[in-house]
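Sample 3 of the quickstart, ligand manganese (II) ion:
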Amino acid sequence: MDPILSEAISAEIEQAQRVLLVTHVGPDGDAIGSLLGLGALLEAQGKEVTLACEDPVPESYRFLPGSDAVVQATGGRYDLLVSLDCSDQRRMGDVVPENLAGLPLINIDHHLTNSRFGTINWVDASAVATTQMVLALAEALGWRVTRQVAICLLNGLVTDTRSFRTSNVDLAAMRAVLRLMEAGASLPEIARQALEQRPLASVRLWADAVEDLRLEDGILWTSVTLDMRQRHGMSENDFSGLANSLSGIREASAVVVFTEREDGLVDVGMRASPGLNVAGAALRLGGGGHPQAAGCTLEGDLRQVQDRVLAEVRRSLSERVANAQ
Ligand code: AMP
Ligand code: MN
Ligand code: MN
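Result:
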């Protein structure tokens, strides 16, 4: 890690007593892992930490030590804000009170599309997970990584790489895994809890969505409607597991899964084959992400959202073909 950055971050942390850590709405394993991991590291430095996320911790990550401490609302006085795994300010949702607008904000993230909204921006798109960056910070500042912290940090690496199968996995990621396993985290146990275990209802719902799959211009897409979710009693709205499973389909260059939410918005999860890129399409639609996995959240009825998104993804794929010629 760049020593100028670690010094700047260390100086902000040293000056602060009450630290508010925030991760993104609709949290995934890296969001929760980095929140809990950095939270425990800062607590060990004698800080009073508040761990916040607009949405509750999903069932898959409740095995992580400290997950009970995550709150959905914040109040009171803070000296410092830290955002984790958020590519733009809106990803923090409404959990940050407006009167905190003048506070120092350390933005720690690995999304290529990060809008650099902090007072200190540490964005490393070569990291496979934000938790890999948190480990690098702990090592740079000489903080001890306990078993509890290691479990949380390894959870981010395991989930964001789908157990080390994504195209960005490199030696630095595997060195981080080694360090975290040396500190006592179990890779198979995390993979089982965070990636393998799921309720039967989610698979029945996937079956409905698979039934509706369409392949058009190399884009494989489907929707998880509110109706389907009600039928199967699925209140959680993270269907990244479905998008991930579909991303291996040979006939598809890109995968898009639309999820209708209770509040009328539509979550869009996108995947691209290696060499292709959906981050640009997501960014044009107000979202963000990585070249191979990106997303956005849109207003409008499902049909309209589908047309808009598929047009953007088509555009991204054809630009790529044009560039290659
Ligand atoms: P998902 O399909 O939910 O697993 O998301 C894939 C990637 O896209 C992740 O890196 C997310 O951070 C990013 N992403 C998903 N939804 C959004 C959104 N509404 N805004 C910005 N980025 C998003
Ligand atoms: Mn995330
Ligand atoms: Mn991440």
